[in-house]
Each structure stands twice: as C-alpha cells, then as structure tokens.
Amino acid sequence: MSFVEQQMDKLQRMARELAKAAKSIYDDWEQVDGVSDWYGEGGICDDVADEMCKVLDRAGFDCFTEYNQYETHTAAYVYWPDEVDDYGEQGVLIKVDIHPSHYEDGSGYKWKKIEGAKFDASILQFTDMSDVYDNYV
Q1: Helical (H) or strand (E) element with 124
Q2: Which DSSP state fits 35?
C-alpha cells in the first residue's frame, strides 16, 4: 500500500468524527428568513473546514484551510511536504471536504441553511491533490 493510500485510509477512518465536528457548526447556525446574526446571508463552509482541521490537528495531521474563489467554497487540506506521492513527486496533499450542498443551498456569498441535514461518514470526501501540491503549499 502506498503512502497516499495509507493516509487516505487513516483519514477515512476519521470520517465519523469529522462529520460530528461539522455538525456542531451546523447545529449552532441559526437563520431567520435566510439571515444569521453571525454569518449574515453567507454560509458556514469556512467554519466547517476550520472545525475539521482542529480534529485533524489533534490527530497529528498537518492541516490548513483554503478558500477556492471559483467554487466559492472553503475546504480542509492535510499535507506531508517530505513524502513522495504515487508518481514519485515530492509532497503529498489530500483534500478533506463536505460539499456544501449537504447542508446549505445557494451560490456565491448567499446561502440558506438546509433544515434537517444529516451528517455521517458518507458525506466526507477525500481527494488526492498531490499533483497540484505546489499550488497549495
């Protein structure tokens, strides 16, 4: 099993804990007519990614969040600068994410909470981004 596969396996085993962390942010998100005192009309993806990074940091992973302006979404990333990816290149990067369509509806900077959203391990996405490592780290 390659280093990337080993790390993906470790991360996937944390999916339930990561979903629980994301749900804590969702549960605290209150909107009235699509507006929150804390987020205004915006969504919670920044805080979801931050909370997942806290879990990953406590588990010993190096984690950061990154906003993607084209997706208008923030995700968490874990990285290993001294490891080699599956193609022999230096630097391993894995994106850890929950797509915002699981908990909010909208686009750009205007999002509305989806009431009753379910958070479980199945909504976590783990993507090997090592081929673009230098663009992120």
Answers
A1: strand 124-128
A2: B
In three state form, how does the secondary structure of 75-99 look?
EEEEEEEEEECCCCCEEEEEEEEEC
The rounded mean pLDDT for the chain is 95
Q: Cβ–Cβ contacts within 10 Å for residue 125, how many?
A: 12
The β-bridge partners of 64 are: 77
Q: What's the pLDDT score for residue 36?
A: 92
pTM assigned to the model: 0.94
Q: Are 106 and 43 in contact (CB under 8 A)?
A: yes
In single-letter form, the type of residue at position 1 comes to M
* Residues contacting 128, CB < 8 A, separation 6+: 4, 8, 85, 86, 92, 93, 94
Distance (Å, rounded) from C-alpha 87 to C-alpha 57?
26
The answer, yes or no, to whether residue 75 has pLDDT greater than 90, is yes
Q: Which residues contact 97 (CB under 8 A, 6 or more apart)?
A: 49, 75, 76, 124, 125, 127
- Of 110, 135, 120, 96, nearest to 26 by C-alpha is 120
For 26-47, what is each residue's pLDDT tens digit?
Answer: 999 999 998 999 999 999 999 9
